[in-house]
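Page 42, continued from yesterday. The earlier attempt failed because a stray header line got pasted into the input along with the sequence. Redoing it now with the clean sequence only.
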Amino acid sequence: MRPTFMGLETAKRGLMVNQKALDIIGNNISNIHTKGYTRQRLDTMSVQVYGSDRFQYSSIPLAGQGVDARGVAQVRNPYIDSKFREEYGDVGYFDQKAAVMEQIEGIISDPEVEGTSIKAALTTLADALDDFSRNPHQETNANIVMNAFKGVTQVINEYASNLKTLESQTKNDLAISVEDINTKLSQISELNQSIAHEIFVNDDYDGVSYGPNDLLDQRNSLLDDLSRYGKVTVESLDEGRILVKLNGKTVVNAQGGDYTYDKLKIASDGVTISWSSDGKNADLGAGAIRGFVDVLTGSDSLHGGIPYYEKCLDKFAEGFANVFNTIVHADNPDNPNEFKVLLQGDAEGRITAGSIRISYQWEEDSAYIIRDKNPDGGLDNEDILKMKAALEQKWDFGGEFTGSFSGFVTDITSTLGSDMKTN
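This time it went through. Structure tokens are written below.
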């Protein structure tokens, strides 16, 4: 026999379930810009009617009792999650590398103040030598040439100093990123435990289709952010728990009821990264961490990083000093092939972009560059013309480039531009 008020109960149940569905839709709309929020839906089912297991009688009188809410599910696709995180790792790598390369470009290719580039300094030096060649006996012109050489060395010094600063900043950013990874791994492990606990104590969650959606959103958001640093893979476990791997290395584990996570640590060189659990070097796969490491260790043209451009500047400085230290004759009658040292390096005699400077002898006396006499007994401009010509002559810069000083700078900036495009 049909219950008297069954129709009213069916109508009431239908209104309540559909009202809840509208609530979920409103919640989706209000959270459309909430970071990490996953769209939700209300799953419904027909009210089930069962006969007695003891007495056989018809369930027809109890049929038609309407709809009931089964649970609030997240509309999320694991395959799309996986592909997004895979692509986000690539984006993280190229974005991080490009960010550092742009700073290198700002240091070498595009000085903020016009006229402060190496090319501008070389042009000023060429003009000074041209004027000096017309008046090789004038101390005023000799002083202008000395200051022009000093201008070239100071620009090179500044480039080297800025690259060192960038290297230090990049290492600091790497350390911050490593700490961020460790924090995220810890938070994911804690959420693993919280989600499993919620599913265990709450009858509304079955651990498969439904769960504490707010906690799941937090965990998914952390996983998405983590995937920017490296190759993240996720394996589902029971009770809503997950196992997380970074490039094949298990970093968050919840198997057997133990909630563990690994941590990264950086060596004293500021670049080498290893796992705390086993001390092995950490390779996180494609991601921002690899981008950091590549720009901090890339020392050749194929993997152009900060060390490569530091090496290029060192070659320029060494070549520049070697050329101009073998032009102005010392006029030593006992050794006609002796030349005046115009440029020097550090205390050990090493000439690098960071140490190159005009010699102490020249700095103390700007007329040091003026020859006392030439073989014919008069003053001429032979050495000065050789210095001017040396700026345009082709030289070998460590076997990687042959050309003028200005051409070498152009080659460096072209390589940098090419690296920017490919990254």
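Notes: The chain has a mean pLDDT of 88.
Reminder to self: strip header lines before submitting.
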